[in-house]
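Quarterly update from the structural biology core.
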Amino acid sequence: MKTVRLTLRYDAETIHPMHRFVAESDAFDAYRMVHGNFAGDDDNAFIFHVVGDPDVYEAALADTGRVSEYELTRTGDRTFTVYVRDVPEGVDERLLELFTERSLVVLPPLEYRSDWTVRFSVVGESADLRRALEGIPDGIETTVDRVGEYDGGDAAVGALTARQRETLRVARDLGYFDVPRSASVEDVAAELDCAPGTAAEHLRKAEATVMDALEL
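Predicted structure, tokenized:
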């Protein structure tokens, strides 16, 4: 079984109105789909985790015309979850069909970013993955960030490169993440047989990747 890490870049014609609104607003810091039910006949149910202004988000959501039902739950001063029943149209409907066919399973979270991209991982048979990628509609630029064997890890682990995973493993085993810290970047570099600057860069990128993929 294969796993693929994808970035889909939308244009003005294909981006969902709520993704565009959040991307273009200064009121939000993070926007992720953490659960989804794609089996609806007329609409589908999703749960989003959002960091930002709930009042601004709710006002925009009510005006989209794409949502048949929603419920917003505040979980902190600037964090909230949204249960949404959304009516898929055009490109969104086609993408849902492509990535839920046959053996394919999308691994949450799906990260909706301010540059009009969505990043996520999908698991399935090679032929089904290839068919889905070939069927992505016009107006969406697709980047395959990573391809590998699915090892049962979650999306946060799957988003890491092999070198980043090795670096984190070595750092953990040496005690780099202990409190108080019992190993230095130099120790990690020596174990990896690389320069301290290279080890530090691997650690920074790995930590950033994991934090981006976590459901927080």
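DSSP finds eight helices and eight strands in the chain.
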